[in-house]
């Protein structure tokens, strides 16, 4: 049974409270509807709030940035700040004059444009955090629990799905439509919306696969360059992310293309036409979606701790593959991810192979699978999916 709560405590809150004491600006970036505004207002209730999505406010900031910053001179949350790119240069001069910590909280939902402006204007003045959709640990701490991992995959992590009791099949169509009609047109003049929507669905069918530009282009009926451009748009809009390969200290030829995943499994399953547990359990993409979910939880854990991702996969040209390699404090860990509910001894093979061929010592080895029984075999820790928080704490 699942219990819905209107407010879910976000793990990133503590990091924000610490950063605001040290930096003049704190930035929160992430997908639309991931809870950036709610988090900023709850952590900093004494701050004024202004939203650059509102046309008149945006026009004011564009036409008279100095006047805008005089009115909102300090201790202000500026929402969707990427909507007025020229404001960043004025913010730089403004915070340098005042020389105080915690002057502004900025939020934004377009990754590339924000990072470019921040690196140009606000480097050294801002502490930047990624806020992904709700994590598994945030949900279970709020007593939102499901008996099967497929429910977490289908519902995803967007807060309104839980706080407003919205069916994923009702919520995600509106989400993707808003993303295409608003965010994409802010980033680029995209005219062929129908083909782009087909392209997004094709990406969902390739979750957990290495990126093949030619195959995607052929199936979507678009050019190689258009595939690269559209993948960049999806990445900039926090729809997809790429997991890079790990190829340090190996003799064998390795696959060097990244793997494609979605930043929310609920969106991926909806794009694949999956609406319930039975459909997911019989779907060809079950294993890859489970893999997406586990890797995504690793990323969320890193983001919520204010750390860099340091996550990879490993695969050689002969087909040996380990789903996830993580680097923390200079130590390498390997994780194999399997959706099956019954542990199979073959799950160990690729991890054992990796340890043989790696010149770099692998400090810890794990398997997480779709069952519920934890095991220890030699130096290998095997976790059922409900023990995901234990795995993340390693």
Descriptive notes:
It is globular and about 65 Å long. With 394 residues, it is α/β, with parallel strands linked by helices. The protein has two domains: 13-130, Rossmann fold (3-Layer(aba) Sandwich), CATH 3.40.50.300; 190-392, no CATH class. It is built from 18 helices and 13 strands. Residues 1-5 have low confidence and may be disordered. The strands form three sheets. A six-stranded mixed sheet has the order 8-9-10-11-13-12, sandwiched between helices. The protein has helices spanning 13-19, 36-43, 55-63, 65-71, 87-98, 111-122, 136-141, 149-155, 159-163, 168-187, 193-204, 213-220, 224-236, 265-271, 277-281, 286-304, 349-357, 388-392; strands spanning 25-29, 48-51, 76-79, 104-108, 126-130, 240-243, 259-262, 311-315, 321-328, 331-338, 362-369, 375-377, 380-384. Strand 8 and strand 9 (321-328) form a beta hairpin. Helices cover 43% and strands 17% of the residues. Helix 12 (213-220) crosses helix 13.
């Amino acid at each position: 049974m699942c219990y819905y709560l209107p407010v879910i405590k976000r793990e990133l809150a503590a990091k924000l409270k610490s950063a605001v004491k040290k930096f003049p600006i704190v930035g929160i970036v992430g997908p639309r509807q991931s809870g950036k505004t709610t988090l900023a207002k709850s952590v900093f209730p004494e701050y004024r709030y202004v939203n650059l999505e509102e046309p008149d406010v945006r026009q004011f900031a564009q036409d008279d940035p100095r006047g805008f910053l005089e009115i909102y001179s300090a201790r202000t949350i500026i929402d969707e700040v990427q909507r007025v790119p020229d404001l960043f240069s004025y913010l730089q001069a403004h915070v340098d004059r005042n020389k105080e910590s915690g002057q502004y909280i900025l939020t934004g939902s377009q990754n590339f444009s924000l990072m470019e402006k921040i690196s140009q204007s606000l480097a050294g003045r801002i502490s930047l955090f990624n806020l992904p959709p709700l994590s598994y640990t945030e949900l279970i701490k709020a007593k939102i629990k499901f008996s099967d991992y497929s429910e977490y995959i289908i519902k995803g992590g967007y807060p309104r799905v839980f706080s407003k009791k919205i069916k994923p099949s009702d919520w995600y169509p509106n989400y993707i439509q808003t993303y295409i009609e608003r965010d994409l047109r802010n980033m680029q003049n995209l005219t062929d919306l129908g083909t782009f929507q087909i392209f997004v669905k094709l990406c969902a069918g390739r979750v957990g696969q290495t990126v093949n530009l030619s195959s995607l282009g052929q199936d979507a009926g678009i050019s190689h360059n258009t595939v690269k451009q559209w993948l960049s748009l999806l990445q900039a809009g926090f729809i997809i992310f790429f997991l890079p390969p790990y190829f340090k200290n190996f003799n064998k030829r390795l696959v060097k293309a990244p793997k494609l995943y979605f930043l929310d499994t609920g969106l991926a399953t909806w794009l694949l036409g999956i609406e319930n547990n039975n459909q997911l359990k019989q779907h060809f993409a079950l294993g890859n979606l489970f893999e997406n979910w586990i890797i995504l939880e690793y990323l969320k854990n890193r983001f919520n701790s204010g750390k860099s991702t340091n996550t990879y996969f490993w695969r050689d040209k002969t087909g040996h593959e380990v789903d996830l390699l993580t680097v923390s404090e200079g130590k390498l860990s390997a994780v194999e991810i399997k959706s099956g509910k019954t542990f199979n001894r073959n799950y160990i093979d690729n991890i054992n192979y990796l340890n043989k061929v790696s010149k770099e010592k692998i400090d810890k080895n794990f398997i997480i699978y779709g069952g519920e029984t934890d095991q220890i075999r030699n130096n290998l820790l095997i976790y059922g999916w409900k023990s995901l928080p234990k795995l993340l704490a390693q």
